[in-house]
Amino acid sequence: MGMDVSGRNPKSKDGEYFRACVWSWRPIHGLMILANERGSGKLVTARTLDGMGYNDGHGLRAQRECDAMADALERLLSDRKALRKAGFLVTFDPGDQTEEMVLSFPPKAGMAVDARTGHFIKEDSARKRLAKGDKAVVSPYRVHESHALEFVGFLRACGGFQVF
């Protein structure tokens, strides 16, 4: 299951379609919420922003709105300190030869994954491991920087979008 994001009036192939699984859409959506907060809530209405968390057709209507969000996301992605302050975990994928940044929410006992195996961890085990500061316990809600930047590229070419 995932989020299918369709361009309303695409200027190029990059703006036609963007897809994110539910595990990576949540951090992308979280980045948009944070970007909107840093812009004093002027980029997107709260109702529209909330609606983009579901696949029921909410989104931005005009290219100028998309450009403003793309600019805000690029600034945010380059500010690791602001991301950490907002509660995002900024890590680097050890298996990735490029050491690409990975953004995730802090893991919670009920929604934790073993980074070594990729398997969900039972809640009681996750709670104990998190309490001990186990670095191998990670959130399943993760997005690679390249995927977030792909969304920025989509925004620059979509002419507005809808999330389905």
Strand order of the largest sheet: 2-1-8
Count of runs of 4 or more consecutive helical residues: 6
Query: What portion of residues is helical?
Result: 40-55%
Over the alpha carbons, how many angstroms does the gyration radius reach?
16 Å
Category from helices, strands and their pairing: alpha+beta
Percent of residues in beta strands?
15-25%
Shape, please? elongated
Indicate how many domains the architecture comprises. 2
How far is the first residue's CA from the last residue's CA?
A: 11 Å
What's the SSE pattern?
EEHHHHEEEHEEHE
Uncertain residue segments: none
The average pLDDT value, as a whole number, equals 92
Number of strands: 8
Main beta sheet: strand number and arrangement? 3 strands, antiparallel
Keywords:
164 residues, alpha+beta, 2 domains, three-stranded antiparallel sheet, 6 helices, elongated
Descriptive report:
A hairpin with an 8-residue loop joins strand 3 and strand 4. This protein has helices spanning 22-38, 46-51, 63-77, 80-85, 123-131, 145-157; strands spanning 2-7, 17-21, 89-92, 101-104, 113-114, 137-138, 142-144, 161-163. It is built from six helices and eight strands, in the order ββααααβββαββαβ. With 164 residues, it is of the alpha+beta class. The strands form three sheets. The chain has a three-stranded antiparallel beta sheet with strand order 2-1-8. Strands 3-4-7 form a three-stranded antiparallel beta sheet. A two-stranded antiparallel ribbon has the order 5-6. Helix 3 (63-77) runs antiparallel to helix 6. It has two domains: 2-83 and 145-163, no CATH class; 89-142, no CATH class. The chain starts with a strand and ends with a strand.
